[in-house]
Amino acid sequence: MLFPKFKGGNGWSILKDSRASFEIEAPFTRRLYYLIISSLAHIASTALCQLVRLDLNIGKLYRANHVLDGGRKLVYGTDSGVWISDRRPKSPDARPRRVIDINTVTQIDVLEEYQLLLILAGKALISYPLEILDPNESQSPLARRPRKIQNHSQFFTAGVCMGRHLVCTAKMSGISTTIKVYEPMDTISKGNRKGAIPRIFQGGQDALKPFKVCSVPLIHEEEADFFSQEFYVPAEATAVNYLKSKLCVACVRGFEVVSLDTLETQPLLDLADTSLDFVTRKDNIPISIERLNGEFLLHYSEFSFFVNRNGWRARPDWLISWEGKPQSFALSHPYLLAFDPSFIEIRHLETSVLVHIVTGKNIRMLHSSTREVRLTVPLVGL
Q: Most CB atoms closer than 10 Å: which of 7, 23, 109, 278?
C-alpha cells in the first residue's frame, strides 16, 4: 500500500492515507528531544505528539520512565547518569537535574511496591532506594549508597510471574546465556511512605535475593530443601517475557518457555504445525511476546502473528510482514506500533491493516503503557 508523503520538518515526515491524519505539534529546535505519543485511541482521527526538550549535555538517552508525583516527573537513564525533570515544566527555562552521577546507564526500572530503583550501568545491576529520585529532599548517605546485585549483566527485566515480583538478569558467555531470577528481600516493606528508607538499605544488605523454590512440594517449609532458580539457554538471549506461571525467553533459536518450578525448557512453537514453516528462516529474530485474550502475539524482526496455548497458529488470516526491521513494539488497543530506527509503523491490531508510517532518524522507543508511548527523537544538527 502506497501513501502520499508530507514533510514534517527537521528530518521528520509523515506518510498517511486519505482516511486518517497524523499530526506533530511542537516547536522544533536544534536540541535533543524525546517524543510522547498520546491519545492512541483517537489516532484514526488525530494523534498529538508532545515534545519535551532535554539539554544536550545530559548525554545519550537510553530509557525514560515517569515514577514520581503521580507521573508528573520523568526519569532518564543516560550515559552520564540518571536525570529527572518535570513532565510539563512550568518555566521554559527548566532543565533536567542529575540525581545519580554514574556512567553508561543503559536500563532503569522501578519496583514501586518496594520503593526500589534498579539501574543497569556498565553491565552491573545496581539498586537504590526510590527516595534518591527526589532532589528536593535532604538525604542521608544511606539513601545514596548503591547495592550491587550482579556484574556482567547484558540486560535485566522486571515483572510478575507466579504471583510474585521477579527480576531476571541475563549474562552472556559466547553464544549462550545464563538467566538468574531474583525477587525483593522479605525485609523490604511494601508501600513504604515517602521519605522512609527501606530497612534493607539501613542494614547494608542486598535489595534482591535469589528466587528459590522448594525441591519437594507440599512439605513443611522448615523441612524443605530450597534451590535457587538459574537456568542456561544455549543461545544468545535478547529478552525475557513474563507469562502467568512461566518465563518466555526470546533468543536466536526462537521463543523458549521455561518453568520456574522445574526449569524445564521447551519451544513455544509446535513445528508440527506446517503453517509455521515460514518462521524457521535464519535471519528472523524473535523480539517480544504479548498475551491477548488467551492467545499469544509473537513479534519478530520480519513479521508478527498469533499462536494459541499449544503453539499452533491462531488467526491464520492475520499476519504482518513489517516494512522495516523493528527493534521494539508497543501495544495500545486497538493499535500496534513497531519501531524501526528510521520510522514508526502503526497497524490496526484487529485487522493488521497499515494505518500510518512516521519517518525519522535514529528512533528508539523508551517506554510504553496503555496511555502513552515514549521514544527518543534526536534532532541535533538537523
A: 109
